[in-house]
């Protein structure tokens, strides 16, 4: 293939790099092949989790080139890429129930058909707002995927097993930033406190048990069952940061039934515009 | 000319990153980055340099802690050894009568 002088060297360098494949657009084989077609209920559950990851990834992508430092652009971009990976797997699986692709689900549904939680559609705000959102969501996702690995549904269990290691790092990344912003300057601490208190009303919805969960015993993870572990995981970080758990009102939520805040429609418009303007285009 | 990290607007110091790609190999310098402290420097290094399974171990060193040779002293420091083969042991012939050399 390589006839140019030095071609072998290029190949050797590529081998040194491990698994480099910049054109990977397909999912892992275990997630595509096999008999796994989701039942309507399992598909709905996969859609919940997939939409959470997709919307959060879209939000984090907006930080690229705008984070406080170049290094943080990359860190948040990496987190977003991990989440896109989870979203692709989950939406692919959700689509098997209705013969739709992951792209059909991501780009061709409208706002009321999205099942994402309100917490992931909260605006990026300043860096502290984004870190507050990452802190809560990453800790929640870690507890969720840790338990979903034992799901009776083999595909969900496989997706969770892969995702849990990545969200473990997201958790660590946000922990580090909560500590630094809280113990940084007066200004950074003020912003961290504001970020947490602005976000806290949306946490209740994350741990709410919608009726679907009752029908998926052993397959889905009961959100309310994650709350004690979540509280126990964030407590030491907040204690070290000398931050108090905010008190205040609880937002109504409704994301799982397609009721969204004013933020989601704008986010979807930006995410979907290119695909809708050029249907079937690939790049 | 100032280097990154020197000016007042850049408050994050510069770190040099070394990655070991495999067990048994030594850590190799791969580049540099900015980070507020050593803990985030290791994490930034992971995000910038090891996302595609390039490494099994990462070191970060404050760039300020590295003492380098002076680029302007290149002539005196690294002068060519051409014509100075007396710097090699093979230049010298073995003396007769030295039995165990």
UniProtKB/TrEMBL annotation, chain A:
One of its GO terms (biological process) is phenylacetate catabolic process. GO terms for cellular component: cytosol. Pfam families: PaaA_PaaC. SUPFAM superfamilies: Ferritin-like. It comes from the Bacteria. Coiled coil: none annotated. This is Phenylacetate-CoA oxygenase subunit PaaI. It comes from Cryobacterium gelidum. The lineage of its organism: Bacteria, Bacillati, Actinomycetota, Actinomycetes, Micrococcales.
From TrEMBL, chain B:
Keywords: Oxidoreductase. GO terms for molecular function: phenylacetyl-CoA 1,2-epoxidase activity. Transmembrane segments: none annotated. The keyword Ion transport does not apply. Its EC number is 1.14.13.149. It comes from the Bacteria. InterPro entries: PaaB (IPR009359), PaaB_sf (IPR038693). Pfam families: PaaB (PF06243). The keyword Transmembrane does not apply. It is an enzyme of class 1 (oxidoreductase). This is 1,2-phenylacetyl-CoA epoxidase subunit B. It comes from Cryobacterium gelidum. The lineage of its organism: Bacteria, Bacillati, Actinomycetota, Actinomycetes, Micrococcales.
């Amino acid at each position: 293939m390589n006839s140019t002088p030095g071609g072998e060297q290029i190949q050797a360098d590529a081998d040194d790099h491990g698994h480099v494949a910049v054109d990977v657009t397909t999912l892992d084989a275990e997630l595509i092949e096999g008999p796994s077609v989701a039942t309507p209920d399992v598909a709905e559950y996969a859609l919940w989790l997939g939409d959470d990851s997709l919307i959060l990834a879209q939000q984090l992508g907006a930080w690229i080139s705008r984070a406080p430092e170049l290094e943080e652009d990359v860190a948040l971009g990496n987190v977003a890429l991990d989440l896109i990976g989870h979203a692709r797997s989950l939406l692919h699986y959700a689509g098997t129930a209705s013969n739709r692709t992951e792209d059909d689900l991501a780009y061709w549904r409208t706002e009321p058909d999205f099942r994402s939680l309100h917490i992931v559609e909260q605006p990026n705000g300043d860096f502290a707002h984004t870190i507050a959102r990452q802190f809560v969501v990453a800790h929640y996702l870690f507890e969720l995927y840790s338990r979903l690995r034992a799901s009776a549904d083999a595909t969900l269990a496989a997706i969770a097993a892969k995702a849990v290691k990545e969200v473990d790092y997201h958790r660590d990344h946000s922990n580090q930033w909560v500590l630094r912003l809280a113990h940084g300057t007066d200004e950074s601490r003020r912003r961290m406190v504001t970020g947490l208190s602005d976000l806290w009303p949306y946490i209740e919805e994350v741990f709410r048990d919608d009726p679907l969960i009752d029908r998926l015993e052993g397959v889905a993870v009961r959100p309310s069952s994650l709350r004690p572990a979540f509280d126990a995981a964030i407590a030491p970080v907040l204690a070290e940061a000398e931050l108090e758990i905010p008190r205040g009102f609880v937002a109504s939520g409704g994301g799982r039934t397609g009721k969204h805040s004013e933020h989601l429609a704008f986010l979807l418009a930006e995410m979907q515009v290119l695909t809708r303007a050029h249907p079937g285009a690939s790049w | 000319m100032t280097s990154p990290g020197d000016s007042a607007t850049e408050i994050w110091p510069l770190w040099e990153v070394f990655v070991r790609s495999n067990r048994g190999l030594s850590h190799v310098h791969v580049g540099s980055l900015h980070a507020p402290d050593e803990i985030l420097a290791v994490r930034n290094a992971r995000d910038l340099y090891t996302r595609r399974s390039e490494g099994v171990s990462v070191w970060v060193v404050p760039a300020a802690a590295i003492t380098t040779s002076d680029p302007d002293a290149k002539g005196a420091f690294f002068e060519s050894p051409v014509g100075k083969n007396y710097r090699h042991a093979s230049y010298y012939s073995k003396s007769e009568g030295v039995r165990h050399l």
